[in-house]
Amino acid sequence: MAVIKANGYGHGLLRVAEALAGADGFALLDIKDAIALREAGYRQTILLLEGFFDVADLEQIAAYDLATVVHSEWQIRCLDAYPRAGSLDVWLKVNSGMHRLGFPPLEAAMAMEALQRHRAVREVTLMTHFANADEERGVSAQLETYNRIAANYRAPRSLANSAALLRYPDTHGEWVRPGLMLYGASPFREVPAERLGLKPAMTLKSRIIATQMLKAGDEVGYGGKYRAERGMRIGIVACGYADGYPRHAKNGTPLLVEGGRSQLLGRVSMDMLFADLTGHPEAGVGSEVTLWGAGMPIEEVASFSETISYELMCALTSRVPMLT
């Protein structure tokens, strides 16, 4: 099941669905996006990861044959108020230790039994979500909790996110839910995407629109966050935080100028940022700058910005043209 929430992690919902049309299912958050997929002709399972928000949603869920997560007792009460029989596929979410969504272990059995005999429910899948699959702590404690509950039922299982899919084969179950890895980024801080055989689906590029010569002591940009230690040349790049590039990226954040490694200087502006042209005498107005993607791992940029690659992808704004 391909996770394509948040507008396909910033890549475009329908663009991603087309690229992943062979997936057995899609998972996302917004019912309007799920309906858009159905109306675009996608017939596979489409799962609403946060489920429904009131009983009125259930009519559309049934009409468009969507699957829905049930994570709280109030949602079961909504199902009780829904009149149609046998029309809904539900995924019961177990809180196995993340403490975000899901029934705690002592309540999961009651919820499962209520859903299995519920007049509105056609099939129940049992799911959970791992908090530390990408970290040294791993999944063992949560997996033990989940398995203790799942052992009592013959139901499809869904546990694995990208990190668990790559690292813990015993979590795979009938449904896996890859997200970040589909877009070519590593879910592990210590393992680059290239080592996992992943290729970036998104490359953010711009061009230099002006150059400046600095002398020793000159400051760059708002707040003078970079001061030249010697004479040097810089390029002004047409990209800023209004495009989704992180304003809090630090001096030294890597980028490519005409395919060669360079670095960000100074504070990112709304519409522009500064690139060090030291070592790039050929670069000038019109030169291509790669901010992340092919040749410039998004994980590196995220690390210098004290964030994660998910946030960079999802923060890309609508004014950035997507060429393919």
General description of the model:
The protein is α/β, with parallel strands linked by helices and 324 residues long. Helix content is 24%, strand content 21%. The chain has helices spanning 5-9, 13-19, 31-39, 57-63, 73-80, 105-116, 140-150, 162-167, 298-304, 309-315, and strands at 2-3, 25-28, 45-48, 67-70, 88-93, 121-127, 157-158, 204-214, 219-220, 226-227, 232-237, 254-257, 260-265, 273-276, 288-292. The strands form 3 sheets. Strands 1-2-3-4-5-6-7 form a 7-stranded parallel β-sheet. The protein has a 6-stranded antiparallel barrel with strand order 8-11-14-13-12-15. The model has no long low-confidence stretch (mean pLDDT 97).
Characteristics:
15 strands, alpha/beta, single chain, TIM Barrel, 324 residues, 24% helix, Lyase, Ornithine Decarboxylase, Chain A, domain 1, 6-stranded antiparallel barrel, 10 helices, 7-stranded parallel β-sheet
Q: Give the helix/strand class.
A: alpha/beta
Shape: elongated
What characterizes the major β-sheet? Answer: 7 strands, parallel
What is the average of the pLDDT values? Answer: 97
Strands side by side in the biggest sheet: 1-2-3-4-5-6-7
State the domain count.
2
Number of helices, counting only DSSP H or I runs of 4 residues or more: 10
User: What is the CATH architecture annotation of the largest domain?
Assistant: Alpha-Beta Barrel
Q: Which fold name corresponds to the CATH topology of the largest domain?
A: TIM Barrel
CATH first level of the largest domain: Alpha Beta
Question: Strand percentage, roughly?
Answer: 15-25%
Name the CATH homologous superfamily of the largest domain: Alanine racemase
Q: Which stretches are low in confidence, meaning pLDDT under 50 for 5 or more residues running? A: none
- Ends: how far apart? 24 Å
Rg over CA atoms, rounded to whole Å, is 24 Å
Number of DSSP-assigned strands: 15
Helix content: 10-25%
List the secondary-structure elements in sequence, H or E: EHHEHEHEHEHEHEHEEEEEEEEHH
